[in-house]
Amino acid sequence: MPHAFWNARDDEARVLEIIAPGAFAQYFAELASRLAVEGEPDFPALAGIQTRYELTMDFETVARLSEQHGLSA
Question: Angle, to 10 degrees, between the axis of helix 25-35 and the axis of helix 43-52?
Fold first, then answer.
């Protein structure tokens, strides 16, 4: 199910994400440990985590969606 999150306004936003089944929360723990490094993350390791959780990320849509919705980093 394709989806994305962003704050379309200038004021601060908070997100409460409820994950079910609860075992999927481990994905974020694995991801965090791989992203908490200096320099470039280990992209093959990140891809392996995504594969284990049956996730795909379509980075090719980022530029189009950012332009379409006026998003910037």
Answer: 180
Q: Please state, in angstroms and rounded to a whole number, the distance separating the CA atoms of residues 44 and 61.
A: 20
- What is the count of structural domains for the chain? 1
Q: How far apart are CA 46 and CA 40, in angstroms?
A: 11
Tokens 């992209």 -> residue: 43
Asked whether residue 23 is assigned to any structural domain, the reply reads no
pTM over 0.90: no
In a domain, residue 18? The reply is: no
Which residues span the domain enclosing 58?
A: 42-73
Cβ–Cβ under 8 Å, residues 5 and 15? yes
Residue by residue, pLDDT tens for the chain (73 residues) are 667 777 878 899 888 888 887 888 889 889 998 888 888 888 899 999 999 998 887 878 888 888 888 877 6
